[in-house]
Each structure stands twice: as C-alpha cells, then as structure tokens.
Amino acid sequence: MAVWDLSVTLEDLGAEAPPITVSVTSDLHIGGVILKLVEKSQVRRDWSDHALWWEQKQQWLLRPSWTLEKCGIHADARLIFMPQHKALKLGLPNGLTIRVRACFSGSVFRTVLGICKMLNIRRPEELSLLRPVEEKKKKKDKDLSEEVYDLTDVPLTSVHSLCDPVLTDLPSCLVSRPCLYNGMPAHFADSPKTEKVYKIRWLDSSRSLMQQGVQENDRLWLRFKYYCFHDMEPKYDAVRLTQLYEQARWAILLEDIDCTEEEMMLFGGLQYHINKLSLSEPQAMTSTPAMDDLDSALQCLEVKLDVGGSSPQDLLVRYDDSKFHITPKRLTLKGYKQYWFKFKDDSISYYKSKEESLGEPIQQINLKGCEVAPDVNVAGQKFCIRLLIPAPEGMNEVYLRCENEEQYSRWMAACRLASKGKSLADTSFQSEIQSIRSFLAMQQTNPSTNSSQTDDNINTHSLVSPRYSKKYKTKQLAPKILDAYQNVAQLSLTDALLRFLQIWQALPDFGLSFVVVRFKGSRKDEVLGIAPNRLIRIDLGVGDVVKTWRYNNMRQWNVNWDIRQVAIEFDGNVNIAFCCVTADCKIVHEFIGGYIFMSTRSREQSDTLNEELFHKLTGGHEAL
Amino acid sequence: MDDIDAMFSNLLGEMDLLTQSLGVETLPPESSSSTSKEVNFTMGFADMNVESLNELEENDFDALMADLMADLSATENKLVAELEEQKDAKVANPDLPAPPRELSSYVVPSLSTTTSPDTGLNTTYTPLADSHIPSFSPPQPPQHEKPSMEDVEAQIKSDKIKLALEKLKEAKVKKLVVKVVMNDGSSKTLMVDERQTVRDVLDNLFEKTHCDCNVDWSLSETNPELQLERGFEDHENLVDPLSAWTRDSENKVLFQERTEKYEVFKNPQNFYLWKKDKKTLKDMKDRDKELLVEENFCGPSIIVPDLEGVLYLREDNKKSWKPRLFLLRASGIYYVPKGKSKTRDLVCFVQFDNVNVYYGKEYKNKYKAPTDFCFVLKHPQIQKESQYIKYLCCDDSWMMTLWVTGIRIAKYGKSLYENYKTSMAKAQLTSAWNNRSTTTTSTPSTSSTITNAKASGKANGYAPQPPEEPVANIGIEPPPPPPLPPAQILPPHPTVKRSPSPNATTKKLPSLPTKYPPSQATIFNLPAPPLSQDDSSESPPDFLPPPPPLPDPGFLSLPPPVSFLPPPPDSDFPLPPPPPDPAFCPVTNRVPKPAPPPRQLYMGADVPAPPPPPPPSFTPTSSVIKTAPLPPKRTTPMQAAPPGGGDFMSELARAMAKKRANQ
User: Fold this and answer.
1) Using CB atoms within 10 A of its CB, is residue A578 exposed (0-12), middle (13-18) or buried (19+)?
2) Counting CB atoms within 10 angstroms of each CB, which of A112, B5, B261, B308 has the fewest?
3) Is the pTM of this model over 0.80?
C-alpha cells in the first residue's frame, strides 16, 4: 500500500510552529497516526486529552480505530492535534464570569452536562449555552474590569459519572447575588429589544463547540433554556436556585417579560428582602436554610411543649419581656387632635389623656384585616399612618399622625403586624421596625449620597425595571416597594427565592421563547412563541395571540432540512408549516423536542438522564 | 403559643393555686382544679350567643344542649381520664420499684375519687380533647421508666399543669351556634367552633343528612341586603366569616350543591381553553383534561386562566355601568385605560388579598345592571352598601362563572385543588361504602358472625364494644349502669333512624342482638354512620388505620378509632375482663379509653340533631324522638358522677328537666 505524507499541526507548539509530517498508509487507523505524531514531536507530556480536528470538514476524528480511508482523509487534509478540553469564559445568570475548562469535542449537551456537574447544578438538561449579545463599547465601561473567577484548575471528570458533584466547596460566587448594580451593566441595558428577544443565539446542542466556531477563551453564556424546572429542591439546589433567580430577575428588570406595576413592586420588595437576607447571613444559603428553618421550628416546638413543663415561671418572664407595651405614645387622630394611644394585642385604643388610660378608652380599633398604608413626607416631617379599617358599612379611614420618625417606625410596624393578626410579641416586630427605618432613610438622604452607600441602603432603581424607575422618583418608589416588601418580609431566604420564581412563573407570558417565522401560505413575518406546553402564533403588528397549539395534541413534527421548513401535524388534521427567519430551524426543532423531552421526565421514576432520548428528540438529522 | 400565654396571664392566680396544691396529696388539688374548670366552663357557656339560643326552636335547643353537655362532660372527664391513666400506669407497671408510701397514698385516694368520673370515661374526649391527645401521650411512657419518685411527682405535677392549660384553652375556644338552611328549606342547627374548617362542618352535615356526599356540596353564605351569595371554600374557617355578620343580619348559611364549586377540575378546558370552539372543548379527552389540571395546578406555581374581556363596572355610587376591558392575572384584576396598550399600561383594579368574590343576584333590578350576571368584590367585613364594594357585570352566565372561578384560583391557588382532592376522596369512599353495603345486603344469607369474623365494616361497628366495657368498669363496682341506659332507650331509636337509609345495617340488625348483649347491638347500630363517614375519608374496605384526622371536634370523627382499635385488645386480653384495669398496659389502655366516649357522646349529642323521625325523611323535626335518646345521656352522668365533676352537669341537666317540665 502506498505510503503518503500527512501533515498535522500541533497546537501546543504554537501557531507559528511548522506542521509535523508523518508517513502514513490509507489503512492506518487514527490511533496509529496519533502515536506516530507524538513520537515524532518528541514532546513528553500527557496527550490523553488530545484529539485530531479536521479543519476543512470542521469535525473531530474521535474514533481511533477508524482508518484514514474510512474517514476519507487524504494528503490534502489539514489536521490539527489539540486538546479536547479548553478554557471557556462563561457568563452566569448572576452576571459573573467564570473561566472553566469545557469540552470542545463532545456535543454541547454533554459540555453543559460537564459544566453543570462542576458547578453543582442539577438537571443540566434545562440549561444550555448561547452566544452573548455583542457588547457595544460604552463611554463608561466599568464592565471591562470585571472580575473573572478562574475555575479552570478544577479537574473535569468524565461526564458519565454524574453521581457526586465535583465541587463540594462551592465558590461563593455561584451562590452570591451581586445585586447592587448602580444602573444596568452596559451590555444589558441597551441591546435593541427586538434583537434581544427574537434573535435566538442558542448553540446547537447536538454539535460540539469547535464545530460551531467557538474558540478557546471565547465568551459564552450559560442560561436556563427550557422553562420547566423539574424537581426543585432547595436542599440540593442552592446553585441552581440562585442562578435561576438571577435569570428571572434579569428577565424582569430588562423587561424581557411584561409585568404590571403591582407585580414589579412585589418583585422589587422580594429582591430587597433577598438582598438583605443574603447580606446578613451569607452562610445561610450554603448551610441549607431548610435545616435552619427546621431548627427554629423545633425550637419553637420545644418551647411550646415546655409550656406546661416544670418551669412556668420562666415562661411568664419571657412572655412579659416580649410583650412590649408601647403604651405611652402620643398620637394625633384625624383632624389632628391629640389623644393618648395604647397598643395592645391587635387593637389600638385611645384616651383623652394618659391619666385616663387606665379606664375605658374613647374607642378601640381592631386592626386585624385592615389595610395599612404610609402617608409620609420626610422633608415635611409628616409621618402619618393611614388605616383602612373594614366595618360592616364599608371601610373606615383613620389617619394617625406620629411625632417623629422613631415613633412612626414603631407604630407602623405594630399596625402592620396587627393587620396580619400578629401580636407585638411576634419575632418579626423588630425587623419590621428596622426595615421601615431603612426605607425612611432612603427617602431622606439625597440620591447622590445614597448611591455611594452600598450595604444597608439599597438603590431602589436596581430593584425595578427602567420603565418604573423612570416613571417614579426614588421617594415615590421606596414606599411602594416597602409596601410590597411588608407582605414578604417574614419569608426565609429560600422561601423568598421560591416565591420570586413562583410569581415569575405565574406571569402570563412566562416561559415563552420567541422566533420570527413565516408561515406557509402567509406573506408576512409573524412571531412564533414556544412555551413549555404549547406553541403560539402572534401577530407581529398587534401583538395578539392569534392561535395556540398544544403539544399534547401534536401528532408529529418534521423538519425538511433542505428547504429548512418545520411542519407540524396536530390532532384533527391540523397541519402547520413555517420557515424560521431569525433563527435556524434546528433551534425551533430543538425547542419543541426539548420541551417534549422535559415533559417525559416527570413520569419517569428514575433520576437518570435519558440522554439518548433527548438526542433523538432534538438531534434532527444528526441523530440519524 | 400566644394562646397559652394569654391563658397564663388570665388565670395566673388559679395557676398558682394549682401549682401549690399539686403536691403529694392529690385529693385537694383535684377538687380545686375541677372547680376552676367549672368556672371556665361557665365562662365558655356564657360566651355563647345566648340570644341566638333563645331564638332557637325547642328541638334545636335540645340538640344543642346535648352537644354542650357532651362537650362539658367530656372535658370534665378528660381530666379524670388523665388521672386515671396515670394511676393505671403506676398500678400496671410492675417494674416500679416498690412504690413509695406517698405514691400509693396518691393512688388510693384518686381511685376513690375517680369512681364517679368513670362514667365520664365513656363520654370522655370531646372533639376538643381529641386534638390534644398527642400532647399528652409523651409524658406517659417516661413514667414507667422513671423510677425516681421525684421524677414521678414532677411528672404528675407537670401533667396536671398541662391539663389545666388545656382546659383553659378549651374554655377560650370561640363557638358559634349556626343555623344551616338545607336545600328543602328546612334547617339544622350546629355548634361550630373556631377551629373547624368548612370541610369539617360539611362532613358533619353529611353525617346528619345522609346525602350522597358528592363534591358539589358546599356551604355558602347569602347576604339579602346586598343580594350576594358566596360559596365558602372548604379550607376556610367557618367562624371567621360568620363573625363578620352584623347583629341584626339576615344573612344565612346554606347547605347546597353548587356545580361550579369544582367545575374547573372536572372540565378544566372550559376555563383554560375557553377561547376554543365549544365542540373541541366538549370532545376533550379525559387524559387531556387531567393534563390540563396537572399543568395548571401541579407546577411550582398555580397558573390562572388567561381571562380578558369587556365587563361592565358600576361607577362609584352612580347608577351607570361603564364597559371596560378587564384582564385577570395572578396578581389581581387589571383594566386597560382608554387608548392604551394591553400589555404595558395595565391599571390595577383590585388585588385579592383583602377581598372575596361574591355572586350578585338580580342586579338588573336592584342596580340597573346591564344583565343579571354580576359579581362583586368586597372585604368580607363589609355587610352593607358601601363605596368600597366593587360591582362588575358580565354578558352572560358563562363569563361570570369564568371570572369568579378565575378569581378564586388566583386568590386561593393550591388550596382549591387540595380541597377538591379531599372532597373527591371523600365522595369516592362514600360511594364505595354505599356500594359495598348494598352488596352485603344483597346476600342476606351471610350471617353476622361471618361478617364479624371477616372484620368487615360492620364487624367494626360492634367490635368497639368489648373494650368499652372494661373501661367502664374500671372504677365502678356496679358495672352495668353506664352501658345499660343507652341500651334500653336507644335501641328502638337507632333502628328507626337507620331504616330510611339505604344502608344494610338495618337488615343485619335482627341477627345481632342474639349474639350480643343488647347494648352492643345498639351501639353497633349507631356507629354505623360514623363508620361510613370515616370510611370515606380513608381507605374503605380494608379498615387500615383509622383516620384520626382532626376533621373536627365533630363527635363523628372520633368513633372510627374506637371501632378499629378494639380488635387488638380482643385478642390480647381476655375478652370479658370486667375488672381488668390494672391488667391493661397503660399505653394500650389509653388508646381505647379515650375512644369509646366519643361514641356515646355521639349518641347523646348527635342523635337528637338529625333526628329522622320514624317516617323516613331527613328533615329535622319532631322533638319527641329527640327527647327519647337524650335522657339517658343526661341522667347517666348525673347518677354516676356525684362527687367528681358531676355538679355542673347535673345542674345543667336539672335545668333541662325544668325547661321540659315548663313546656
């Protein structure tokens, strides 16, 4: 058999180094080529991660037993011998960038599997990689100096052993929530809406990174791609939960998903609460907050059981302590007349004077179920509490005017608790006072000094989307957020995260990925929305949903790879076909198949990932 | 926690007294505690809405009285039972190192004192008590292990304190007498305590009406003044909304079938895919319906139907109704201001935290609404015309159902689905039970013994009897009295009562008496209904573990445990162990002990309430029947419990008798 020369570039020698030429025959297998190559290179090192990349064909030669003939390689082939794992800059949902060693030779699906395993993110099939929006250089480019967490030293074990996470001690960056942006990062703030939403930049999950033109040290984003988050378990999912929260948060702040003002304020309140909690107890997240909750619950239970126990005296003392009589406070009622007010349990009583406060009150107001709203003007030293108290005839409106900030904070906190049926003995009383104070402070200090403080005072504008931060001034915004915050202030960190995600998932447009398509027989571009359970057709002009198709009515779907057309058949002889305008049809195909795969998971008992099925459903012709 | 705290502050003095007296000698403290308890009872009684009591018809009064009596005596006796158990524990425990003097001295007196309460034992454990049982049990086991006398004493002391606390707690429980209007216009009167959910009350009513228990049954409130109606959700507390009623309120509580209650789970497509054409919706496959429910209710967050449409809004205090485009979101109802876009400029119309949704009736007349299909959002406390009530009007009844259901989903979320599942389980089991009983009837040849041996549902019916006897005998030399009275008086009654019902019970009855003493037969008779009830709440045919759910203090929920538990003692101990108290291991003992009472309780308290007169009809009437069963109940405690806690009860009974005499 004829011997011919095959030249191979050794990447490790540098780009300038001349290719190494080895003499081969056509029936030599790839393994043999590599052996010869390594021998000839005279470099002693571990070559186990290296493989041959065929540049013209953009493919890896990963089967060592295949002969050159079988691979179709001739003397003109340009081969590069290089490592399969290379460094990749990965943007996480929480805005941090990490450097990881990722697999460039396996399918993106497997690469993500490996990355997620290293980061300890369960259910990696829900995530994928996408190309970042091109960053436009802005005048104030703070982001250039961004910190990159280098995780390339973390050994990457084989993808197959998915049993235990590689990183047992999580880098704190993975669970941290850097929320104190002063404004938006440049690249987030001004990508044109249409491009951001409709241009799908997801990588093809059945091909390798190299095949999709990703180079070493390129920057990619890791994001949740499929909006069905199976089996979320805060105990094991610290990273997953945090990253998902961050993704949801940014989706809301960037108005990728529409929400109303009320919803936005609630999101803002939750963010504020989450920030505060994660600042005050940075350990809580890693040390399973569920356990802490349990501990405190048990403690509470113990106290309960102890009630009748041997030490009733202790209990009495404790009770008296926490009772907290706010009795001596002077307030003015509507019409600004002065009365002596007394707060007990969940009602307010008022008297003509302090001396009479031992007798019958003029009136007693039960606050349970009432609405409490602030009516505050810090600059004008006006601290009013507006109470809407339900009565059979309607709501009674009562204003309590406090003398100063301090008094206001305490009474406001007390009213809030009472309206929820809690007494002052409740543990949240002090924290309630604290947060009211900090919100007051927010309205007091002028914005310039405010932005420099980072820890205690939050920047309200970082909590809501630009739409609302433009609409309201800080001092208007703060009470709105505070108001919403009151309803969630009792939540633990994990519960707050979960609540945030819940509300996000309950938004009408949740889970939709959009792609501009052209339906068969239609002359104009329309938008196809892909949701976890359905496809929707949206009229681009009006923005209305024209039609909905549900996956569970779907008989089959086909892709004609030649004309790049997706055809779907539904029950009842409904057929649709469309070509994709802003994305490759493979992406749409992958979305549909992916969601169908996701829906099979719940029924499957085993926790093992059925990779083969995923590939079958999403692979397209690569799967064949 | 707060409750306990409050109780402490309220009755500090008494507590001190108690702690002091809780020394070695037990007799004095016992009496002192019982007096204090009586005080509490009186307080509890006074708390009740006396006015409404006066308004009640005679028969209602009887029923309530019985309820109340049962309640009181039960709590009363629970204390005794506790003491009894402690004593039993000690007596029964041979490992106890030669009980010290004082200890034994403790035992003896308490024994003598308990004689009276013993009768009470049968009637022990009210619903209220029931919920506390668990908290009591812990101290029990340690008792055996602790050889040290001080420990034992401390234990006793703390137990007593706990007990006193429990009683204080019970006395504070708010109770309402509620008149429920039935479908046929008749009414039943129930006592509802503040811990009962609507579900509990429904179960209670199922028991009393022998209806088919399907998921549509619901309690609703009407407000005639505002012409409003609202179905309570099963997880709601009944007392809360009722407390919002004004004194002179003409509001009513209705017990009726409301098909829209759980329609969203039966035909989710009509709500979630309402835009699709009617035919596709109708032809929806069951599997697809399930999937829809799963998708929208089983995920991490509840998905609210995507609702939008033009509704008419009643302008504040004006007579006009303005059309507006409204949207439903999980966070509330929004509307689109004129000329604004649908997505970005939504204005919040109302959020659901503080309002309930009501159906408005005949608003075309009342408020000149465009149609009669109106719904209303208001704070539950508002009972009269007010600017804070929001009125909306839909084009047709279907849109109204859509909106109201959508709002309920947004407001109640997952609880709605949980409620549905509970109702379904209940309905299915009830029907399973009914089916089964009919099959048994169809083969009348099956002798009762066989059924018994098989421990079928029926067998369970009388199984409880054996343990009950020993329990009853524990303290009393002349044992028969307690069981007997019911036997004498009740038998005819239950038979009559059951006959209208399709149950097999009646048919089997005849054979039973021959095998068992009459008392057992009667008892068996009565429990039947609770059985079916409890059946439905748990597994039906197998009688696995009884469902001790706290469904409620309901007298009804308790019997089941009784019926299930007894069998073990049967086999473990000689069946007729008249004076077996010490033989029982305290633990086993305690279980059956609390249980039997409810049954009697049930008899006494419950029979009168749904007193189907001889003619087979469920409507509550004829006080004659009711009076019949009652006497035993009242007299028994009177006779048997002179020294212990009987005073108060006998007083009540006397009052009853007096009242009757006056008639």
Assistant:
1) buried
2) B308
3) no
